[in-house]
Write a structure and sequence with these properties.
There is one protein chain. The protein has 2 helices and 9 strands, in the order αβββαββββββ. It has 182 residues and is mainly beta.
Length: 182
Amino acid sequence: MLPVGWFVLAVVLAVLAGGSIAGGAVLPTVKTANVQALGKVVVSATGRTLYHYTDESGSKVDCARACATLWPPLVVKSGAKPVAGAGITASKLGVRKRPDGTFQVTYGGLGLYMYSGDKRAGQANGEGIESSWYAVSTAAKIVKPKPAASTSTGSGYGSTGYGSTNNTSTTGSTGTGYDSGY
């Protein structure tokens, strides 16, 4: 009979390898967490924010090769099924085959990616990059943060009766707005 320490080590190694633990429990592939200003979103088993590339739909994969280095897809082994963690609807989990032959996890049909710029759980540095990369909600929808209140100021001839302006900046810029003719 092996000492108890060996049994504990075997259980820890099984968990780290993604295997099951005593009682049949399996580590989740995805779960939910509150992430910065985004609220509750889908995250990896280690808590990293998961994103969807909005240029993709269905089984179409546009982020491959160099893109997949910056945005690593969340993958499972061939034949494995992703496991739902807390807050995840299991029936929305799936996989799609990528051009390189790996199997990417999907949630509600959305391919899931991590961002290499997120170094730890709770970060969302990839949110909104190129107006194409967004975190995924528990309802399997992309999450776009609310725009900041407009702080734009300036003098636009259009506002003084010489024409109309389209000064709709929400970036906090200041300056003189001559958006349309006068």
